[in-house]
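Protein entry
_____________
===
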Amino acid sequence: MASESSFDVVSKVDKQEVDNALNQAAKEIAQRYDFKGVGASIAWSGEKVLMVANSSERVLAVLDVFQSKLIKRGISLKSLDTGDGEPRPSGKEYRLEASIKEGLSSEVAKQLGKIVRDEGPKGVKTQIQGDELRVSAKSRDDLQAVIALLKGSDVDAALQFVNYR
């Protein structure tokens, strides 16, 4: 009897790359002419990224700079959670907090399992393990088909495929 092959679907972010993107964005904001004198800044605030400026449009411009730096560093924007995306007034300035999402939520894991059951090859099994999803099958070709299927699916998480064996 052939042994089963499997892989794990996870949603992880390289914290060092996020930190590098944030530092690059902070440098660009400090140097750009259109950010002079508007009190624009971006920095870590605990586990969240805090963006500050004197108008809501400027805060959204800071967010845009940060997003472009994340993309250049290969980090999916699906892992950046800005809440409703509206800057909040705080005294004379506007603030926007964004967090970095890691791990598959149970809803996303269930959604991925349903996609595999409905559209994937027969004989492929899924199992939710904490904040990841294990996919197993007898055939490695079936697993490759599932990876292609999940890459093409539209879910609210940045997906990586690890522990392929």
Summary: Helices lie at 15-31, 56-72, 106-119, 140-152.
